[in-house]
Amino acid sequence: MCGITGWVDWNADSTKQADTIEKMTETLEQRGPDASGTWLSRHCAFGHRRLSVMDPAGGAQPMIRPAKDSDSHDCVLVYNGELYNAPELRKELESLGYRFRTTCDTEVLLQAYVEWGPDCVDRLNGIFAFAVWHTAEQKLFMARDRLGVKPLFYRREEGRLLFGSEPKAILAHPDVEAAVDAEGLAELFVIGPARTPGHGVWKDMYELKPGHGLLYDRNGMKTYAYWQLESHEHEQDVAGTAEAVRELLADTVERQLVSDVPICTLLSGGLDSSALTALAVDYYKRTGQGQVHTFSVDYVDNDKHFQAHDFQPNADAPWIKRMTDYLSTVHHPKQFDTPELAEALDVAVLAKDLPGMADIDASLYLFCREIKKEATVAISGEAADEIFGGYPWFHREDALRAETFPWSLATGLRADLLSPELRTKLRPQDYLADRYAQAVAEVPQLPGEDEDRRRMRRMSYLNITRFMPTLLDRKDRMSMAVGLEVRVPFCDHRLVQYVFNIPWEIKTAGMREKGILRKSLEDVLPSDVLYRKKSPYPKTHNPNYLAAVRGRLLERLDDPSSPLLPLVDAARIRELAAASDASSHIPWFGQLMSGPQLFAYLLQVDFWLRHYKVKLVL
User: Which residues form the signal peptide (predicted)?
Assistant: First the structure.
């Protein structure tokens, strides 16, 4: 994994801006700690930071190859990602006469573009964000993987387009102002910590949507979808469906275990991470690669303060031991304390360039930092709940009929937090309703479905396209902030497309959430783990954390220079902070963000406004 940045500028000589591209590139150093490279021509500049995973000696970027049928004009590539079907693509390209100088997938991608142009994306299986400059055609092409595992942002101005793996790279350009307008604030306070697809929050900054390509030349810019979810009839029975799920999952896990550097799995003892770890152990045994290393996260004194509830029914520790004993992995438990979590809130903002999931982000950052000391690549279970229907809101009638995003039900509380002036300007309820209507309008309909099936298809689509990106964004930023590559097998587009069309009664085979996934793994996991009730990513239950973030937030509200004050209703926040049940506001966002996370999120907003010297354009 890497970091990419650059621009195309028709109005200036880019060869005279070496310092600027160097500065933009260096903002992404943590994403690529192993090497750095830049390339400049009159109208185009590229920068790249490299994390070496495949062919450390041969995969330097920006990478240049002659354009098709030309020895005088080049194609230049900067790329962040992994292609899991690189061997097949390489073989096909070699049959067409291409010769390779390296063993890395970067060269495979570049030669694929030389041969097929923008249509090369249809052949890719992997996670990626890349940019190619075609010298002869004076054209930039950029693309992002189908599910949006790898990030890519851009900013278009008169005669110029800037891009970067993260907003910080674009913000480093001297002509770009760190400004946010009313719509950006609405994303933060109404939608956040999620984001509307394509929205960059920063003024005039956008995210290239998952499954989209972008073309930019002297005639202008065009973005288009090269892939999107489609609705089809599902014709297999329960047994056939379970077999297909198993085959797809096993194939993608094996593809993603290929690496020239140490690899591990993240293990919580839940269904998803246990399944990936078991499949990895099986593959390692068959290929003679030794024991799999596993990592888990917990918090000091969590066992003393844990309280079971519908969203988190039991603790992970006993289940982790069950799986590590069962699979004989080399296990590395990691544990953090309240002061570390509170201190890492600011670091998490710097990693994301925005406020995020508070200590859920901060703990992941700390976790990844520890893993990086012993591994470079990790396998993680993100996306299984979104595609198989594992979250509680898939199974609650009130959430299914809520006519809003089920992870953002506390709309009244969100509105109450804002200052009267900002509330009037943002119109929170209307903004959320518009974004929800936009999402629902995208759902690909299947003629002939009854209302119940339509409702479940809609819920699946919302989770895959609106909630899942939040977790993928979180995983990318917190891991890449320490130079750790995290792969997510459940995001294989073949698996996601197939499962999207499985009828709900088959998805819940055996009358259980994610029933078809469980059935597909009956010979992989022990039955107690296979049918363990879902428990999400662990968070701290220590009351000291609530006290710490509540106390810090009250200090910020007492600071007359705080940039947060004009945006919020400080009196209302103080009321919440004084309430004895401050920790019981469940859920404020998703399953994990309750009272402590609300206070921490506001702390992150305050820090973000200060550190980035955000200019509000209202």
Answer: none
